[in-house]
Design a protein that fits this description.
With 155 residues, this protein is an alpha+beta fold. It has one domain (2-154): 3-Layer(aba) Sandwich (Aminopeptidase), CATH 3.40.630.30. The protein contains 3 helices and 7 strands. The chain has helices spanning 20-35, 100-119, 133-137; strands at 2-5, 40-45, 55-65, 80-91, 123-127, 142-143, 150-154. Strand 4, helix 2 (100-119) and strand 5 form a beta-alpha-beta unit. It is globular. It starts with a strand and ends with a strand.
Length: 155
């Protein structure tokens, strides 16, 4: 598997993760957001020449209110802090059960950690779908105080 920035070679219209909102965002909006510098989308493919997208994630910058973070992360932080938002993460229905979601998450965490060492950022925030909360929690994400679906992982 290879993780790459989304480009025009990748088949966005043929991707189906089983969630109409995630499919629609990927096929119609991901490229626009990249072009407008709103977010960056990364895909996993079998090799550099493959057009079939096995899964994807999108990241962007965010600002968090430190009072909303889990208590033990708030010490010595200003009122607002920079972070990274994992905006979307999806795996093709044809490739579920192969730990691709885990691989996507690890790639996102690694990418964010590298960027944060250069530009700052206290952690990763994700607004999880209810069915995905346990997935994120098993990798150390904790619920934030502002909303039960917002999860945080320090970098």
């Amino acid at each position: 598997m290879v993780f790459l920035p989304l480009n025009s070679q990748h088949d966005r219209k043929g991707f189906d993760c089983g969630d109409a909102d995630l499919n629609q965002w990927f096929s119609q909006i991901a490229r626009q957001h990249k072009d407008r510098r709103i977010s960056s989308t990364f895909v996993v493919v079998t090799d550099n020449a493959s057009a079939e997208v096995l899964g994807y994630y999108a990241i962007t910058i965010a600002e968090l209110i430190s009072a909303d973070l889990p208590v033990h992360y708030r010490k010595r932080l200003p009122e607002t802090v920079p972070a990274f938002r994992l905006g979307r993460l999806a795996v093709s229905v044809n490739h579920k059960g192969r730990r691709i979601g885990e691989s996507l998450l690890f790639d996102a965490m690694d990418r964010i950690a590298r960027i944060s060492r250069e530009v700052g950022g206290v952690g990763i925030v994700v607004n999880a779908k209810p069915a995905a909360i346990d997935f994120y929690k098993q990798y150390g994400f904790e619920q934030m105080l502002d909303h039960p679906l917002n999860l945080f992982l320090p970098v």
